[in-house]
Amino acid sequence: MTAKYETLALERTDDQVLLVRLNRPQAANAMNTRMGEELMDLFEGFQLDSGGLRAIVMTGTGEKAFCAGGDLKERNGMTDEQWLRQHAMFERMLRSLLACPLPVIGAINGAAYGGGCEIAAALDFAYASENARFALTEVTLGIMPGAGGTQSLPRAVGERRAKEIILTGLPFTAREACDWGLINRVLPQGELLEATLATARRIAGNAPISVRQAKQSIHKGLQMSLADGLAFEIECYNRMVSTEDRHEGVRAFNEKRKPNFRGA
């Protein structure tokens, strides 16, 4: 990765895993226009070229906040037109995150409020630190979630729980987020990032075409009827039959060795 960003810190932890930090700690990693544009640029780029990556981990800088949501200081005084223009870009950013062909795993290291919670819900899955807190507070500000929150959250926690979270605007803990299905694991702050990276490395060691096709089958299949989802699954499955990785996987199993998947 050669791009230089003002609000994101990128670190290639090895050849196949990229760590993305939301990097505005002075503002609790709140999302301003620049951060939204940079996230959009980053994730739209992955749709064209993965750069040899096989998994991405997203976290925030520091131990207090993953992302405090939209930067209300920047938004203070915006005209309606300016607000809508900025939000259209945020929407495009979320769509690029959802469409990322690579698995994107969250290490939620602190507060994930508003748009930060929406990002967490849009990830493929996420782990959280014990001090992490979540909330969708938009209704307390005269708006509503508009970056996927009313769609991604119900898919994670169910309709009734999502209505309670969104309509009250009340915060909830990492343990509650885990119990409700938004978060997969809760870990001590000092163990969070390494545990998340270990999971990313495990995924990166699997056949990359298989991982991408399985991710796509799960995500899109949930938006279909069961019959259509099963048909789509087989389309994804058949894509792998002729790959070298499929042959390598069978050879490695029979030769009792670790497979060398090349994504071909």
Task: Write up what this structure looks like.
The protein is α/β, with parallel strands linked by helices and 264 residues long. It has helices at residues 33-46, 72-75, 80-98, 115-122, 149-157, 159-168, 174-180, 189-204, 208-221, 226-241, 244-254; strands spanning 8-12, 17-22, 55-60, 65-67, 104-108, 111-113, 125-129, 133-135, 172-173, 185-187. It has two domains: 8-204, 2-enoyl-CoA Hydratase, Chain A, domain 1, CATH 3.90.226.10; 208-254, Lyase 2-enoyl-coa Hydratase, Chain  A, domain 2 (Orthogonal Bundle). It contains eleven helices and ten strands. Helix 1 links the parallel strand 2 and strand 3. The longest helix is centred in the middle third of the chain and has 19 residues, at 80-98. The two termini are 22 Å apart. The mean pLDDT is 95.
Features:
2-enoyl-CoA Hydratase, Chain A, domain 1; four-stranded mixed sheet; six-stranded mixed sheet; Lyase 2-enoyl-coa Hydratase, Chain  A, domain 2; 11 helices; 48% helix; 2 domains; alpha/beta; 264 residues
* Residue share in helix: 40-55%
Arithmetic mean of pLDDT: 95
Gap between N and C termini:
22 Å
Beta-strand share of residues: 15-25%
- H/E order of the elements? EEHEEHHEEHEEHHEHEHHHH
